[in-house]
Amino acid sequence: MSITTEVRPEPSVSPRSARRRRSVPGISADRSVRSVLLVAAIVPTAALAFLTYEMVKTAWPAVIFNGAGFFTTKTFTIGNLYATGTEVHHGYAAAKGASYGVLPLVFGTMVSSFIAVVLAVPVSVGGAILLAERIPVRLQGVLGTFLELLAGIPSVVFGLWGVYTFGPVLSRTVYKWLAALHIPWFTGPTGAGQGMLTASLVLAVMIIPIIASTTRELVRSVPAISKEGAVALGLTSSETVRIVTIPYVRTGVVAASILGLARALGETIAVLIISGNFLNAYPHSIFDPFSTMASTIAAFLDSALTDSTGMAVHALAEVGLVLLVITLVANLAGRMLTRRFSGAGLPVGRGV
Amino acid sequence: MASTSTTAVTVTTGNPSAAVTINEDGSSLLYPFLQELVSPLTAQYSNITLAPAPGGSGKGIADAIAGTVQLGGSDAYLNSGQLSANPGLMNIPIAVSAQSVYYNLPGVTNLKLTGNILAQIYQGKITKWNDAAIAAVNPGATLPSTTVVPVRRVDGSGDTFIFTSFLSATNTAWQNGPAFGTTVTWPAVSNELTANGNPGMVQTCKATPGCVAYIGVSAGAAAQAAGLEQSLLQNKSGQFVQPNSTTITAAVSAGSSNVPPDLAQPLIYEPGAQAYPIVNFEYLVVKATQASASTAEAIRTFLAWAVSTSGGSTPQYLAKENFVALPTSVLPAVNAAIAKITP
Question: Does residue B143 contact residue B130 with C-beta atoms inside 8 Å?
Fold first, then answer.
């Protein structure tokens, strides 16, 4: 009886309030976790929004000054800051002789990053499959560590290595042989190693760890049952990779490649050192010096700060804005690609 | 304590009653010299601390205008736009620097070059070391047919400013084309290389036979250690000279006879048989109006001490960077400017 009396009040409490009362500590913990997560989710979004706002605000005078000329002229120069007089367009002044044309920089950025991704993806995927499946576990650990170390090397180190070791060696050997083949765009003087091909190769080396380490984890996540099934059907190991592993990881590889592309698009110091920093013209061959948007911002910023009209800094902000838009478009395109590929990548593969 | 006098230009200096930190940001060429001054300054004036930083000339000037630092170090003087946009902003020369032109041509020493030849090299008009124009100023020298590889700075730089000033002074096409600045629009030259900072210039030139590179005298020891040869440059009087305290002082003496009130004085291609053609003042940019009396006093004291031969302007601190002291002829104008720094 006494027990019944004690439990009687229970039904009078609504299930909802009972749940609340019973698990108050749990609920409040849930809430605090949720608010922490909410802050964590808002911070990157707010940072991007603030960045975009600041860049648009800083770039605005240049947007008006340049008009459409920003995308039609080839010359990017902050002008002669020591000359008398200014250039005035649409009510805004810039230093004498200033001209801001972003096209060769957009070209240099996109082409060098594209070449880097095209070179890096097969190497990364091949290396990741090898790392995850084809070599003894102990060696996997060692090689995996090297891959992760590669990801941690500062980009200035890649730049210096590229300009003093990698580039000169390649220009004396491989580039000479390539030029001798007379392939279009692979002709002409090979220079001393500063140029688009060297920059693309160094960028490729820089993004390999990003793509490869992601792919390695994806390859490891391929269900053993699918691979065992493939082996049971008598497939060779290369057929298993082609029919089971690659379709399974394809979506993730596309996403990882987009990450790598974004890194290559925005890479600054390494490209600044290796590119040869050539402005105002398109490269005639893949060996020619060029420049990218990010490296141009870095190269010009200090001088731009001494432009009393302020237009040089505004123009660099406009370059940054274009880079931001390109990176955004690349990411969105990557998302669409990922969506298209997902669903096709079932662990069962697509048949022999 | 000294007293202010408008006629004799004496700067009021002294140890401020409260501790003051003078923040400086700017030229990476000036930075090592300012670092040398940090401890002797505090030893002399216990309440003044100098805190220099090598953020780059443009950033240093921008920071000085914004007021985040009191002094902005710069290899280039302020342009007229900056001066008119920021009334009260002053150029204070603090030391004299110069620039060498190095080359990497095994077996060829004491090569003579002119500004006109260098301008043509950097325009891609002279591409071989045995070019007739180079041979003409080097009679008797055996010049190889090596390709000339001009090296230029990729970053905004005071060295680019004074080098392109020299090219503008000696070659009309250059003057009307790229002209001069801390960053210029370089002509397309197929063999050209770029490098980051003076150490990068030394390293790139060392690695590239046939190179020619402009390098500030403060990196002279590194350039010599790398085995690069220093050229002799033709001055306005037609003589071929190398930078040393005699030739640099000769150029400053010639140039400082007519220093304008804003002290924005190029020392490029000055007349005189001894004068070295690429010389420049190293500047500290400062606002005439400072936040407080003690800050103004600290800045005046530091600057007056730094340019004084009994203070920072001694070979003990200058020699390591191969800088030269300001000539006495320019000191009255410099001190007059320093005296304008008030709360």
Answer: yes
Q: Which two tokens stand for residue A64?
A: 């008006």
B8: exposed, middle or buried (C-beta count within 10 Å: 0-12, 13-18, 19+)? exposed
With an 8 Å Cβ cutoff, are A308 and B203 in contact?
A: no
How far apart are the C-alpha atoms of B285 and A149, rounded to whole Å?
44
Query: CA B9, B15, B17 angle in degrees (round to 5)?
Result: 125
Residue by residue, pLDDT tens for chain B (343 residues) are 444 333 456 888 889 999 999 999 999 889 999 999 999 999 999 999 999 998 888 899 999 999 999 999 999 999 988 998 999 999 999 999 999 999 999 999 999 999 999 999 999 999 999 999 999 999 999 999 999 999 999 988 999 999 999 999 999 999 999 999 999 989 988 889 999 888 899 999 999 999 999 999 989 999 999 999 999 999 999 999 999 989 999 999 888 877 888 898 899 999 999 999 999 999 999 999 998 999 999 999 999 999 999 899 998 999 888 999 998 888 999 999 999 999 9
**Using CA atoms, how far apart are residues A155 and A289, in angstroms rounded to an integer?**
19
Measure the CA angle with vertex A334, ends A333 and A340; round to 5°.
90
CB B91 within 8 A of CB B315: no
SS3 A312: helix
pLDDT at residue A16 in the model = 53
Question: How far A258 CA lies from chain B's nearest CA (Å)?
Answer: 29
* CB B86, CB B76: distance < 8 Å: no
DSSP letter assigned to residue B128: B
Pairing of strands B278-287, B267-268: antiparallel
Q: How far apart are CA A306 and CA B86, in angstroms?
A: 12
Query: Is A55 buried (19+), middle (13-18) or exposed (0-12) by CB count in 10 A?
Result: middle
CA distance A50 to chain B (A): 22
Instruction: Tokens for A51, please give them.
Output: 């960045």
A191 lies within 8 A of chain B by CB: yes
Contact B188 A81 (CB under 8 A): no
Q: Token digits for A177?
A: 């042989």
Distance CA A42, CA A15 (A): 34
pLDDT digits (tens, 9 = 90+) for A20-76: 555 566 778 888 999 999 999 999 999 999 999 999 999 999 999 999 999 999 889
* Pick among B196, B201, B204 to test the A interface (most A CBs inside 10 A): B196
Complex confidence, ipTM: 0.86
Name the A residues in 61-90 with CB < 8 Å from any B CB.
Answer: 75, 77-78, 80-84, 86
B68 touches chain A (CB under 8 A): no
Closest CA to A277 of A199, A178, A218: A199
Query: Best mutation site among A76, A81, A279, A284 for testing chain B: the one with the most B CBs within 10 Å?
Result: A81
Contact B183 A299 (CB under 8 A): yes
Q: Which of A272, A277, A303 sits opposite B181 (nearest CB)?
A: A303
pLDDT score of A352: 47
Q: Which of B57, B80, B156 minimises the CB distance to A84?
A: B80
**Planar angle of CA A131, A134, A136, nearest 5 degrees:** 80
Using the Cβ of A280 and the Cβ atoms of chain B, whether some distance falls under 8 Å is answered with yes
